[in-house]
Amino acid sequence: MAEMIKRKLLYGAGALGVIAAVFVLTMGLTFGKIGGSKKDVKLGAAAPPITHLSASVQELSDAFISVAKAVTPAVVQIQVTSTPKAVNVPNDQNSPNNMFKFFFGPDFPFHNFNMPQGKPQPEQALGSGVIVSPDGYIITNNHVVQGADHDGIKVTLLDRRTFHAKLIGRDPTTDVAVIKIDGSDLPYVALGNSDSVHVGEWVVAVGNPFGLDYTVTQGIISALGRNINIIRNKYGIEDFIQTDAVINPGNSGGPLVDLRGRVVGINTAIATNTGSYEGYGFAIPIDIAKHVATDLIEHGKVLRPYIGVAITDIDQTMAKAIGLKAAGGVLVQSVESNSPAEKGGIKSGDVILKFDGTRVNHANELQALVASKAPGDKATVEIFRDGKTEDKTVTLEERSGSSFASVSGSESGGSANLSSLGLSVQDADKATLGNYDAKYGVVVTGVQPASEAFNRGIQQGDLITSVDSKPVKSTDDLEKIVDAHKPGDALLFRVKTKDKVSEYLALEIPQK
């Protein structure tokens, strides 16, 4: 039986061998016939469907190709390693942070669980940067390198060379950072002038989105001077270039380039509901990035100039209340004591129309213009005051920072209800006025939702000190001033917040 089984297996193997031989011979003959054929295989049409390409279209295509070739070698991939703090899981039954006690109550048998203490695990993130000097200085975003471990910044070039980078400095107020690699004769970019870019201009973004190395996208500049409130810093400066060139996570720190190959911005953020591209990207103007980078390289910190004013945008209602023919400029809410603005003769209530010859229509525009200067620089400020324009000269100084103390007050005395504005007020006693550092005023005790006062920003606890430059020393004063105006008139309120910050707010008396 065993021999029979063995023989059958051998026969089977032999049969397979014969079949294989026949198959190989057959396929050989078949392929031999194909290979020996003299027929030419033709795939695709002999000519393109479009035989004439517009010279302007070809030039545009060539321009994108040229920009990509010129800039991409200077764009780097940045890999950042950071180690978060250890997370300890308390096992003590009496600890207020005991997780089992918190979620399951004091009777949970926590003693059956010996939870290990959490060990910090390194984390890695990817971003982009651009080389701006042949010896290896690189501009990127602060948020790309923030929190990096020592020797935790790795840079990879287009030619696959890798370097460990040194952090030169970071500036959270502009989200700019500078790192450096040791090298010579490195590829680097030309820096343009972001003040000369225009809405509608073609631009190219280069970076490493989603870890896809050296991706090039194109679009146009779709807006200038955008403030999107992403820099969580008291002195944050946002004056972004908006573009529809595709920018995704990983593009941060890469360049935004015009068609002459000049960097006009550093890609920083996207507006998105999904976490990826939806058509709106934002870049730091290169003028700001260059100024910050130069300070970080030369001084190890940013020499931030300041003018010493609190400012706000002006809308149509505010313009009417101030006496401007149209909305424009920025309103000076307050002036810091002994600041460059005060020394230069600027007062609260002034409207700044131009800064060093450049028209200003938004608060962030003035911030960016001041940030582009250096301490010690002189600037001409055109203001509107009492129906006339005049020039003031200010000498910028280095900012040391300031803060306001939070206080709470009490109200007393007479009261009034200005129903047309949705506002109720009460006289303030000496103690309350002292809390606001004010000599007179009335305290806002209530603001009706959706009223004119509510919509214009007056809040409960504000102190109203004047209306239309007339002092408000009592609720009677306020009522008389308001009653002297008709529906449609705009009134300029001067108020102080609980933080002792003075500001102007414009309210329009609603039509009945």
Going across the major beta sheet, what is the strand order?
Answer: 5-4-1-2-3-7-6
Number of helices: 11
Class by alpha and beta content = alpha+beta
- Rounded mean pLDDT is 81
Report the biggest beta sheet as strand number plus sense, adding barrel if it closes: 7 strands, antiparallel
C-alpha-based Rg, rounded: 34 Å
Helix content: 10-25%
Q: What distance separates the N and C termini?
A: 114 Å
Question: What would the principal axes of the Cα set say about the shape?
Answer: elongated
Low-confidence stretches: 1-32, 401-413
Q: Tell me the fraction of residues in β-strands, as a range.
A: 25-35%
Structural write-up:
The structure is a single chain. With 512 residues, the chain is α+β, with helices and mostly antiparallel strands. Helix content is 22%, strand content 30%. It has eleven helices and 29 strands. It has helices at residues 2-36, 55-71, 99-104, 142-145, 286-299, 316-322, 340-343, 363-371, 430-435, 452-455, 475-483; strands at residues 75-82, 123-131, 137-141, 153-156, 162-164, 166-171, 176-180, 190-191, 202-207, 215-226, 240-243, 255-258, 262-270, 281-285, 305-306, 309-313, 330-335, 351-355, 358-359, 378-385, 388-395, 397-398, 415-418, 423-427, 442-447, 463-467, 470-471, 490-496, 502-508. It has a seven-stranded antiparallel beta sheet. Strands 23, 24, 25, 26, 27, 28 and 29 form a seven-stranded antiparallel beta sheet that branches. Strands 9-10-11-14-13-12 form a six-stranded antiparallel barrel. A hairpin with a 4-residue loop joins strand 6 (166-171) and strand 7 (176-180). The radius of gyration is 34 Å and the shape is elongated. Mean pLDDT is 81; it is low at 1-32 and 401-413.
